[in-house]
Task: structure prediction
Amino acid sequence: MMDHKGNEAYSFFLESHFEGLLIRFAVDSGKINFLNSFAKKIDCLYSDSFYDVFRVRKEDILLYVQKSEKSVMLNVKNKDQSPLSFYFHFKIIDGEVFAFGQQSYEEFLHLKEQIVSSNSSLNNLNRDLQKQKIDLRKLNELKNQFLGIAAHDLRNPIGVIRGYSGFLLDSPGIQDNEDKMRMIGRIKDSADFMLGLLDELLDISVIEAGKLTFDKKAHDLFKLVKKVAEMNQMMAGLKGINISIASFDGPSIVDMDSGRIEQVLNNLISNAIKFSEKNTRIELSVFQSGDSITVLVKDNGKGIPKDEIDSLFEAYSVTSVKSTAGEKSTGLGLSIVQKIIIGHGGRIWVDSTVGIGSSFYFSVPMSKNKITGALVELKHVPVVERKPLSILLIDDSEDIHILWDVFTKDFPFTTQHCNSALEAIDLLRADTKFDVIFVDFDMPEMSGKEFLKFYLTEAQGTVTVCALMAHKDRNMLGNLQELGFSGHLDKPMTASKVKSFFDSFKESEKVFMVC
Amino acid sequence: MEILRYKNFLDYLIKGDKRGCHQFVADYLKESGDVKALYLYIFQPALYDVGHLWEHNKISIAREHIATSIVESLMQLSYPYIFENKKNGKKVIIACVAEEHHQIGARMIADLFDLAGWSSSFVGANTPVDVITGLIQDEGPDLLGLSLSIYFNADSLRETLNAVQEKFPELPVIIGGQGVSSLGMEFMKRFPKYEIIQHIEALDEITSLKKIMGKAS
Result:
């Protein structure tokens, strides 16, 4: 029997917000007769039976009562499914079980320490990761910068090797000496490969630096496919491969950087040639799919193993498939191609079966401008007989002047050479007249841009001025017209580029074309 | 005005309002970009005030832990400022001695070194002696910084200093943290080349390389 003080203390305990459980329940049925205020906060305890709530049997409780000096852990899930653990002591008084439950202070402390320590470790790890991430980004920028510089500086001398070897191959009498022809041919092929590789490295460095820009204009994609197919037909012909094109009837007008899409097509078609056996076919199709124009390049080549397809568009990934005539691959082309297509809001994908062939598809959105096919129809310009052109060529590289003379020796024009813009200005001041001026974009003392500014303002010149551009200046392409240039010629200069430039020049007085 | 701003931050922190704190710090750094001021005039006093409130039974230990945890996560917002800095080629290792679980002050010091152009390796709380000496061996730092927040852990500090002094006698060491003010002269007599840093000005001299530790001293 409790005395008065005991009763008061017991009542205080029951009514206080002391965070321990006191539950009274019937021994036989487990029926809960009383919950203290803390127990009432645990909603799952509003149940008929203690045994049901804690999933224990009457026999267990009787055993626990006997071992009253040791607490018993019982787990329960609250109605919000949060798990709780209580350590109970049991006592039987007058047919009722008094269950006193509490949470473990030691466990709480341990839990707290673990959480604080894990949180700190995560924060420290995150600090390290952030630091490394920034370090890696800086290193990557440095790598791209280095790559860009190295590739750019290598490009000019290799361009010179390529130019001279091409010239030597065309020299009279070379066909009589097979050994020499083969060796020079190898020099030219190697220089071509190196130039391609350097261009791809430069592209990758521009892409990775996030500086890839597109000069998009409405063009007919089918016409471009046809042009690139024709350019590749010679290479295909060497392996007896025939390229065919099929197209739907409608116009395939796309807002695109035609130079970049040409690069995509060149890559896909030359890959198809590389991996096709002799005397097979490559089929090109251009068709409309929804609001997009899709181009398919299908070969009957070796095909790509399924497990290699996922990494096909990653930079520096090379498949296990070998080209059929030992042609080389850089592992960069498809990665660049993918970036270009994504940059045009399109997508690229591939279906391939080993032994049967590969189908590369890319689709780009149709132009939203309501341009009809008529606008891009070739203008039939009447052929006008022209007097021989007079050309001014301004470049600080002696090689460019030599190659120019080699490539244009059969062309109907005369060329005046200047090694600097200042020298050219002296000539212009002396009132010498020219039909076309070619000026190197990047020169010491006075750049091509500065020269043009002078020419247009002070000299009030009116003739066509074209820029000679190195690869690194490609990002200026979009601004050339704004600056006042009428066209540009890409370096390294080749006979076909010069010829192609002047073929277009015949059609229009003011040209703006990509060579 | 600055005090009002500070009080706003402290309110967010005591309430455990992580989003409010985050916004405050993001705005603060956007306006001033001054990570050092953020650490010294916002974070440090706020953490001291939170500790003070706990000591006076105004907030529970859970709230104190939540506040510390929020400040630790807020420090991440300063990373773009501290890690982008131009490096001076100097390396520092910052660690809390064994059994020392309070790491936030040491982390701030590591960040301040990075901010000044050093490259810091922050090892964190409760770092055993062999881990510290192993790291010194691997990284070859120009300086070691040890943190002692609670004087109770002075034995761990002594043990670490003994090991470092024996294995790397040329390596300069600085010691900081709230626990160092209770270290007596006797304690430091054993380590005449090592230096206790009690003020930010003293740290500034080291991070800014005005004072070259281990040579000019």
Notes: Residues 370-386, 507-515 of chain A have pLDDT under 50 and may be disordered.
